[in-house]
Write a structure and sequence with these properties.
Blueprint: H1 2-30, E1 32-36, E2 39-40, H2 46-55, H3 57-60, H4 66-77, E3 84-87, H5 88-97, H6 104-111, E4 127-132, H7 136-147, E5 155-162, H8 169-178, E6 179-180, E7 184-185, E8 190-193, E9 198-201, E10 204-210, E11 227-231, H9 239-242, E12 250-255, E13 281-283, H10 287-303, E14 305-315, E15 341-343, H11 347-354, E16 361-369, E17 375-383, H12 389-399, E18 409-412, E19 429-432, E20 437-439, E21 442-449, H13 453-467, E22 473-474
Parallel strand pairs: 1-3, 3-22, 4-5, 4-11, 5-10, 11-12, 12-13, 14-16, 18-19
Antiparallel strand pairs: 1-2, 6-7, 8-9, 9-10, 14-17, 15-16, 17-21, 19-21, 20-21
Helix pairs in contact: 1-2, 1-4, 4-5, 4-6, 7-13, 10-11, 10-12
Length: about 475
């Protein structure tokens, strides 16, 4: 029996190893990203591939067979594909459930017809991206942009604008980019060209521009044109302040914080398709807004919401003090690693901006806790109809699999899940199915979210949307 288990493992590992070069070629040569239930297989090891297959049991209720996905991937690779994101996990599950008598090749060709032959997406060329600031979110977005470089025809991180911090500034910034105490080492190679103020990450040349104010920079002088600038400093949050970035070479400005006034707050998966193409300044809202709005949307669509409250249990951030010291805000001056700290939150008002048609009133509060990353939102909803725990469980699980929210919402039924399990999660929010409480018309949802990496991934999705390099996701729901 033991030998049988080991033989099965060796067989699965052999298939996973054979999948890796196919996934890599599709990505580099055709801008095709292969996923399994929204989890990318690009640049993953054989063990990562097998772990992804096993994770599916938390969603589908059973472990996905690598024999099935391997056959699907072979059929995908044989097609004349254009740029696309293809979920071979969903294809494998759907093919197993079909009774049409089609071969794997016939079924895959039909399901991916929108990305093959004459239907291939036209090459829109690359889009320049500039980061204004290089803090926690800036460095993670930079990692994601480098990771998503693909064939070079998509988003291209061209420059980072920072204030010079002193001697060896570039070396120190490269070190922070290379090593992260929470998110680990950068997946690849980083070299430094100090003479040209450039960091080369996996072949991507990123110019560091030293400036203390937006008006100091002419991006065209660096060969940058029609760029999307991502302001991750939070220094300006209104239209007047952010308009300073609309300099030569910059086309649009995206803020990684809640926007004030008439600036649209975008939560990808919820309202990203309604972005006005003429809008030049927009916001990706906050990490907490991105965590709660998708779940609220799913619950509103299924059951209706009369009212609710969100309590955020949030990891401490850079705007708190390590030790007790003066701070302009109440309570934030107290030591972050030693205390639970009640802080104000704008999540309730931001929910209204992202879901303007929501009639329900959602209140909110937040508690900062002594952990460095991964937060939780406890969402207490009074529904317009009575329901059951099983119905809510099924609704949220399905939202993580199908429909517009599937990239924003993830789902876990792991009985022993804790916060560190979600470091590096690429979803805006992860529903904890086991923690769900439902009593008639009241539902309490527990939502995990990596307030750094998950949010950065949402920012990147918005950038892809407004850049025109948002590739079709197949198979269609």
């Amino acid at each position: 029996m033991t030998q049988d288990h080991f033989s099965d493992w060796q067989h699965a590992q052999e298939l996973a190893e054979a999948m890796i070069p196919i996934v890599g070629r599709l990505y580099r040569e055709r801008d095709v990203t292969i996923r399994i239930h929204s989890r990318s297989l690009v640049n993953k090891s054989a063990i990562d591939v097998l772990r992804t297959h096993r994770f599916v049991r938390h969603i589908e209720g059973y472990e996905l067979s690598i024999d099935d996905t391997s056959a699907i991937l072979q059929a995908v690779a044989a097609l004349d594909l254009g740029a696309a994101t293809i979920d071979i996990g969903r294809l494998a599950v759907a093919y197993a459930a079909s009774d049409e008598g089609l071969s794997v090749e016939e079924y895959v060709a039909r399901e991916l017809a929108d990305a093959t032959g004459e239907n291939k997406l036209a090459d829109v060329g690359g889009k320049d991206v500039v980061l204004y600031g290089f803090g926690r979110i800036g460095r993670l977005v930079a990692r994601l942009l480098v990771e998503k470089a693909g064939s070079g025809n998509g988003l291209r991180l061209r420059a980072v604008v920072v204030r010079k911090g002193g001697e060896n500034d570039l070396v120190k910034r490269a070190s922070l980019f290379r090593r992260d105490s929470i998110h680990g080492h950068f997946n690849g190679s980083i070299t430094i060209d100090e003479e040209n103020s450039t960091i080369i990450a996996n072949g991507n040349a990123i110019r560091f521009i030293y400036a203390s104010d937006p008006s100091d920079v002419d991006y065209t002088a660096y060969g940058i044109n029609d760029a999307i600038l991502i302001d991750n400093t939070g220094r300006w949050r209104d239209r007047e302040g952010l308009s300073q970035h609309l300099r030569p070479g910059v086309d649009k400005v995206v803020l990684t914080a809640p926007g004030k006034g008439d600036i649209p707050n975008i939560v990808h998966g919820v309202n990203h398709e309604g972005i006005d193409p003429a809008e030049r300044i927009l916001s990706c809202a906050s990490c907490t807004t991105n965590a709660v709005v998708p779940a609220i949307k799913a619950m509103e669509d299924a059951f209706g919401i009369r009212s609710g409250h969100v309590e955020t249990v949030h990891s401490f951030t850079n705007d708190q003090n390590l030790l007790d010291n003066y701070h302009k805000a109440d309570r934030r001056g107290r030591s972050a690693p030693l205390n639970l700290v009640i802080v104000e939150t704008g999540a309730a008002s931001a929910i209204k901006k992202a879901l303007p048609n929501l009639e329900a009133t959602i209140s909110g509060n937040a508690i900062r806790v002594p952990t460095p990353d991964v937060s939780m939102a406890v969402l207490n909803l009074n529904l317009k109809q009575a329901t059951t725990r099983d119905e809510v469980f099924a609704t949220l699980r399905q939202a993580s699999l199908e429909g517009p929210l599937k990239r924003a919402i993830d789902f876990t039924s792991a009985a022993d899940a804790v916060s560190t399990d979600f470091i590096g999660s690429r979803a805006a929010t992860v529903v904890d199915g086991n923690a769900l409480i439902v009593n008639d018309d009241n539902a309490i949802l527990y939502l995990w979210y990596d307030n750094e990496f998950g949010y950065s991934t949402q920012v990147l999705r918005v950038i892809q949307q407004i850049s025109g390099v948002e590739y079709p996701e197949l198979p269609k729901s």
